[in-house]
Design a protein that fits this description.
The chain is an alpha/beta fold and 287 residues long. 42% of the residues lie in helices and 19% in strands. The strands form 3 sheets. The protein has an 8-stranded parallel sheet. A two-stranded antiparallel sheet has the order 5-7. Strands 10-11 form a two-stranded antiparallel sheet. Strand 2, helix 2 (50-63) and strand 3 form a beta-alpha-beta unit. It is globular. The structure holds zinc ion. Residues 70, 109, 148 line the site of zinc ion.
């Protein structure tokens, strides 16, 4: 049975057996425990051969796993002019090898403000991101680039920043990290049904209803201070109101993927899945 949301982990599940191990092993193990998505955590760099990409793609198809890539942390759409060619290569490489590996979506951290006003930073960031999309399309690469909501107020990547990027550039859609959205301002906001519904309404009003049917969500518990994100937490230790978040997602008709980033990865990913089945009632239908 397929649900309107797929569930998976960012990085291979922790309990992936050593044989065959690697990403192929992670894909097989994820499928065996009832997950149907995986985000390849290429966060320290893109170091993968074409042959490995082919093996990953084949394993994902055989096991019904939808793939995405988390691109290296070093990308910064607001980086210095002379550094930008090197910074953009991380995104282009993640997209190139990710597409070879069968990934449809490339998730990345948009960068930092360096203390400048968001509207000024977006004037630099958006044309640069547009240039990346143009290069990929010239290369017949159809992947979606997904700037992720950041967990700190000093980082580029507020909800309005990522919506602005997506509104302006076809082929760009946000990665909505609800833990980051909650932690970002450091005041405990974004933790009620009403706040999430408002955020999701803003998302669909900005990008059209169809964007709600192709959501890419990061989720975990989160620890935060006055400046925002500190570290990710397991579900039980977090103050995030997951039940009401799932209700808000159900009521707007969200479809897509929820990728778990908690310290126990697949354990919480499966809890999210079971919570969704309960809230959505999809497990009880005969479709
Ligand atoms: Zn991330």
């Amino acid at each position: 049975m397929s649900f309107s949301l797929r569930f998976g982990t960012v990085g291979s599940p922790k309990a992936t057996p050593p044989n065959p191990g690697g990403t192929v092993g992670g894909i097989k193990y994820a499928a065996s425990i009832g997950l149907d998505a995986l985000e390849l955590a290429w966060v320290q760099g893109v170091r993968v051969s074409e042959a490995t990409c082919m093996a990953i793609k084949q394993a994902a198809v055989e096991n019904g796993i939808a793939l995405s890539v988390h691109a290296p942390y070093y990308i910064n759409l607001n980086g210095d002019e002379e550094k930008w060619p090197r910074l953009r290569k991380y995104l282009i490489d993640a997209a190139h090898f990710g597409y070879l590996a069968g990934a449809t979506d490339i998730i990345f951290h948009p960068g930092t403000y360096f203390g400048r006003p968001p509207e000024d930073v977006l004037k630099v960031a958006i044309p640069r991101l547009q240039g990346c999309i143009e290069e990929l399309r010239k290369d017949n690469n159809p992947v979606i680039l997904r700037p992720e909501i950041s967990g700190k107020a000093a980082m580029l990547g507020s909800l309005s920043d990522v919506l602005e990027m997506a509104k302006t550039i076809p082929g760009v859609i946000p990665c909505i990290d609800f833990a980051h959205l909650h932690a970002r301002l450091g005041d405990g906001a974004m933790n009620t049904y009403e706040e999430w519904t408002q955020a999701l309404d803003l998302y669909s009003n900005s990008l059209g209803k169809k964007a709600l049917h192709n959501m890419h969500i990061h989720l975990s518990g989160i620890n935060y201070g006055p400046k925002g994100e500190m570290n990710h937490l397991i579900m039980e230790e977090a103050d995030l109101d997951f039940g009401n978040l799932f209700r808000a997602l159900k009521d707007v008709g969200a479809k897509g993927r929820i990728m778990c980033e908690s310290p126990v990865l697949e354990v919480d990913a499966l809890k999210f899945k079971h919570m969704w089945i309960e809230v959505s009632g999809e497990g009880n239908s005969s479709k």
